[in-house]
Amino acid sequence: MVKVRVLKWLLVSATITSNAYANLDVLTDAIWEDSPGRVITTQHRGNLVKDAVIASSASYNDKDLIAIKSIPISKQKGFEERQRLVENGYHVITFSAVSRKHGDVPAGIVTYKEENGIARLTIAYHGSESLEDFTEANLWAFKQKNDELGINGYVHGGFNTRYMESRESLFDAIEHILTINGKSIQDVDILVTGHSLGGRSLT
Fold first, then answer.
1. What is the pLDDT of residue 89?
2. What is the pTM of this model?
3. E strand spans, 27-183
4. With the C-alpha atoms ordered 47, 53, 157, 7, is the resulting torsion angle positive or negative?
5. How far is CA 193 from CA 11, 33, 67, 147, 200, in A?
6. Which of 33, 42, 124, 156 is most deeply packed, by most CB within 10 A?
7. Nearest 5 degrees, angle CA 126-CA 16-CA 40?
8. How far apart are CA 88 and CA 79, in angstroms?
């Protein structure tokens, strides 16, 4: 069940990252417990933080692409960083959101790479890069429920809308990248990065 596992990771694995934090000792190890006093494993996170920074930066789009349907708010380097991922052996697929006003708009990327026997799939939503991001997502800060997702609680209204607008495209991208690499969702580790409308490195 690809959708169930990905949804789980999207809800619990959002990572706030920056180059400035990538080397801090506090982020290099995490202890996971399933009950008080019982340690399951110690996981080294330094490389995960670094990978999340790279993916979240690469998820931004060239301002010329954004300008086709909306107004760019700044020049981003994500398009160039995405190409560097490809040159370093990553498979990269973009996914989009279906905006009510603008139609299909870029939402993020899915990457895949197998290294040292570990297959990792990374999901990264781009951060705010256009006026449309603010008018259709950021500013809609009211809380709402989403019974379709089975969440017992409330979600930021604009981010919930953007996720719902992009989830089918995201799942299609995941299915495709797994298929071309001969993997199932159970075969891969999943890394999700994003804060606000996404996440990016500080440069």
1. 94
2. 0.73
3. 29-35, 38-44, 91-99, 103-115, 118-125, 143-144, 155-156
4. negative
5. 11, 22, 25, 24, 9
6. 124
7. 125
8. 15
Q: Determine the residue type at 185.
A: I
d(CA 179, CA 155) in angstroms, rounded, equals: 32
* Closest CA relative to residue 159, chosen from 144, 173, 174: 144
Q: Is the dihedral of CA 158, 105, 146, 111 positive or negative?
A: negative
| Residues in a beta bridge with 113 | 120
- Residues 78, 177: Cα–Cα separation, whole Å: 20
At 14 the pLDDT is 38
CB 137 within 8 A of CB 120: no
Cα angle: 163, vertex 131, 138; to 5 degrees:
45
Cα–Cα distance measured from residue 181 to residue 203, given in angstroms and rounded to the nearest whole number: 33
Regions of the chain with pLDDT less than 50: 4, 7-9, 11-32, 38-42, 199-203
Q: First vs last Cα of the chain: how many Å apart?
A: 38
Task: Specify the DSSP class assigned to residue 187.
Answer: G
- Pick left, alpha or beta for residue 198 (phi over 0 → left; psi -120 to 50 → alpha; otherwise beta): left
